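In this supplementary section we document a worked example of the pipeline. Step one takes a protein sequence of length 323 as its only input; no multiple sequence alignment statistics are reported here. Step two produces a three-dimensional model, which step three serialises into structure tokens for compact storage. The input and output of this example are shown verbatim.
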Amino acid sequence: MAEETEIKCRIEDAGAFRKALKRIGARTVTRAAGGKAVRARGAARVHEMNDLFDTPQGGFAKHGQLVRVRVENAEKGRGKGAGRERVVLTYKGPAMPQGAEEASGMDIIRVVRDQIGHGADWVKLYADYRFGPLPGSHPTFTQEEMKFAVDAAHSAGVPVAVHSSTAEGMRRAILAGVDTIEHGNEGTPEVFKLMAEHNVALCPTLAAGGMSDRKRASFQAALAAGVTILSGSDVGTFPHGDNGHELELMVDCGMPAVDALKAATSVAGRVLKMEIGQVKPGMYADLIALDGDPTKEIAAVRRVKFVMKAGTVYKSPGGQPAN
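The serialised model returned by step three reads:
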């Protein structure tokens, strides 16, 4: 059944947004309290607009109609969202899943168990995020709430990954007993020391959103503290196929090239509790060959000449599979 869903997001490209509205049948633009209102009617092919929005739901379904669009005033403050207009979209079509399930207090135990019951291999929590009137990210759960979630997951043998960029969100997550922290952009030497002591791994995302002095200092503090680091990158916030840029940035920030390669292979396999990332009998035959030696020139990871997945060759010199 078609349902109306209200989606709040930020406009990534205001010019492209307006062109897209015109393309899908926006009829009128009027002034309204708090900003501009746009009404779009007709069979809007709204999924074509996915790349214009930072939507928590991950985009529109292929078949649906954009019923109403409300554009609010530009966000204040600094950072990624500053100066961009907010938009509230009312979409009518197939029900769309949220990017994350909401939980609070003791109810987080039920939510974690439900996720596991539906087959989750890992549980992910957002220890901090952008919400409320103040700019930037703030802690979402208390340390006690996260402890409830971690205990429920670990009781079922399921590890817990946590999105966190603030030092306080990271501190709460570490003391709650999580397995990994993703991002860690604002981590401090004290927080990374705590991570190392509690054996919590870090999955930095240096390539996501561009490099900064703050991210560089945070990554170097994690290295100095001896934190286990695996490579993730958050690719999708930058183009797929450019994943190797994360390894380049890790090396540029002081990680030896060999360790960066391990972060993307054997260390990642160990942290993810998967039999991957090593070349030895009994492992998956997932192999690549490069033009160059990445232990001496990390950029060689971009020059892939041979690809084998589970023993099947998909790419070989000359452009044709070898088998």
